Known about the structure:
Chain A is mainly alpha-helical. Chain A is 71% helix and 1% strand. Chain A is flat, with a radius of gyration of 27 Å. Chain B is built from 10 helices and 10 strands. Chain A binds chain B through residues 117-118, 190, 192-193, 195-203, 206, 210-211, 214-215, 308-310, and chain B through 51, 53, 56, 58, 80-85, 88-89, 91, 93, 95-99, 107-108, 111-112, 144, 146, 157, 160-161, 164. Chain A: It is a multi-pass membrane protein. Chain A: This is Phosphate transport system permease protein.
Amino acid sequence: MNKTSSVAGAPKQMTFRRSKTRLSDKIIPILLGMCALLSVVTTIGIVYTLLQESIIFFKEVPVWSFLTGTTWSPILPPKEFGVLPLLGGTLLITGIAILFAVPIGLACAIYLNEYAPARVRGVVKPVLEVLAGVPTIVYGYFALEAVTPFLQKIFPDMGIFNALSAGIVVGVMVLPMISSLSEDAMRAVPKTLRHGAYALGATRFEVALKIVLPAALSGVVSSFVLAFSRAIGETMIVTVAAGATPQLTLNPLESIQTMTSYIVQVSMGDVPRGTIEYGTIFAVGLTLFVITFLLNILAQWVARRFREEY
Amino acid sequence: MEAIIQIEKLNLYYDTYHALKNVDLDIPEKTVTAFIGPSGCGKSTLLRTLNRMNDMIPATRIEGSVRIGGTEIYGEDVHVEALRKQVGMVFQQPNPFPKSIYDNIAYGPRLHGIKSKSDLDGIVEQSLKQAALWEEVKDYLKRSALSLSGGQQQRLCIARALAVQPDILLMDEATSALDPISTLKIEELVQELKSTYTIVMVTHNMHQAARVSGQTVFFLNGEVVESASTDVLFSTPSDARTEDYISGRFG
Ligand SMILES: Nc1ncnc2c1ncn2[C@@H]1O[C@H](COP(=O)(O)OP(=O)(O)O)[C@@H](O)[C@H]1O
Ligand SMILES: [Mg+2]
C-alpha cells in the first residue's frame, strides 16, 4: 500500500486471490444437497411401496371395478372392493369442513388485516397458530363429546357417529391455516393501494373486498387448496367421530367412513400380510396419494393463475 | 377571491410530536396552491388533513378548524367517504390498482353507485382525456395498468381521481418519482385542470411551484411562515426565512 514504491506512471497491480480456501464453502452445499436428496428419496420410497403392494392388489381386483364400485366390504363376505363409498365419505367430510372454514377463515383474515387494532392482532394471531398445533385426537374427542351432543339437540335423530360433527371439527382444524395464510397474503398487499382506494371514498369493507382481496387472491386461494388437502388427509377426527360405516351418502347426519379412517381400522386389526385385505390398505393409500398430489399441482397452478402483480 | 378551504388555528399531533402549529391558511377556488418547504416541515401532513387521510394514522390528534365549502370537515355529521369523493388525492408514487386501465378509472364511479356500462364508458373516456392519456391508451383499455410507464401510471392515477368528479385535487409530490418529460406533461396537465378544479400541490421543487402555482405557501417546522401569490412570494418575500429558503441558503 506504499504509494511511493510503485513505478511512476504504471498502474497499481492488483490480485484477487483468496487468502485461504474455506472448507465450509465446499461442505455446506453438499450437506444441503443431501438434505434435498433425502426428501426426494423418501417420496420415491413411499411411491414405490404404495405401487408395489397395490400392484398385487390390482392383480386380483381390476382397477376399473375398484374405482367405480359402489360397495366397500373388504372383510365380510360377499367381499366387494368398490372405493366410491370411502371416496364419497372423504369428500363429504372435506366438503363440510371447507364450507365451514372458508367463510369464517376469510372473515377472520379480513378482520385481522383491515379492522383489528395492532394489539388485538398481536394476541389473536398467535392463538390461532396454537389452535393449529392441537393434536388432532383432541379435536376428535371434542367432536364426539362436545359438538355431537350439541348438534343432536338440533337434529334429534342424528346418531353418535356422523359426518356433520366430524366435518365441522375438521373445518375448525383447518380454519387457522386459512385465516393465517390469507392474512399473510393480504398483509403483503402494499399500503399505497389501500390509500389509493380510501382517497376515492371507499369504505374499509370496500377496500378489503375490492382491492385487498383481489390483490391477495393467489395466496388466499392457495390457502383454500392447502386446507382442502389437509382436510382430505385428516385421520383421527374422522376415526373418532364419524364412525366406520362405508356408505355412499350425501346425508351428513349419517355415519360414514373415509379413506384414512378405513386405513386406520384395517391397520389396527389383525389382517395377515399378503392377503387381499391387506392389499386394500395400499390401494386406498395410493388413491389418497394421487388425489393429494393432484391437489398440490392445482395449488401451484392456482397460485400462478391468480397472481396479480403489484 | 372567496376561499374554498379555510384553515384556522390548526394543530396536529402525532402522539406527542407537534407536527402542525397553529396553521391559519386560506386556499382560493380554482387556482393552484403550492406548499413548499424543507423535508419534514409538515406539508404532507397538512395536505392529508384536507381529505382526512390522517384519520388512518393511529394516535393522531387534531385541534382547530378546517372548513371546505363552508362545512367543518372534522364536524360530527361529516362522512369521510363523501368528503374524499369531493377532495381527491394523487400520491407521490403512482399507485394504480393491479387491474385493467378501464377498471382503475371505473373503480371510483362504481363505488359511488354508477353501474351502467355506457355511463362508465363515458366517464372512463372523459377522465382519460382530462388526464391527457386517452390517445395513448384508448386501444388498450383492457390491459393491466401496471404495463404503463411510470409517467403514464401517474396520469392514470390523476384520471382515476377525476373520475369521481371531485372539486379539489390534492397532489403530494406527484412528480417527484418521474422523469423530466413526464413531469412536464403533468405540469401542463395541472395548468389545464386549474380552470375546473382547485388544486393543492406539495412540491419540494421550488421551480415547479414557481412554474405552475398561483399561490405559494412556505412551511417551516410545522408552521406556515408565509403565504402569498406566487409572483410576490418569489420576488419580494416578506419573511427573511422565506428569502433564505428560496435563495437556496437552506433546505
Ligand atoms: N405517521 C406519522 N407518525 C409520526 N410522525 C409522522 C408521521 N408522518 C409524519 N410524521 C412527522 O411529522 C413531520 C412532518 O412530516 P410530513 O408532513 O411528512 O413532512 P413533509 O411532507 O413536509 O416532508 C415530520 O417530522 C415527520 O417525521
Ligand atoms: Mg411529504
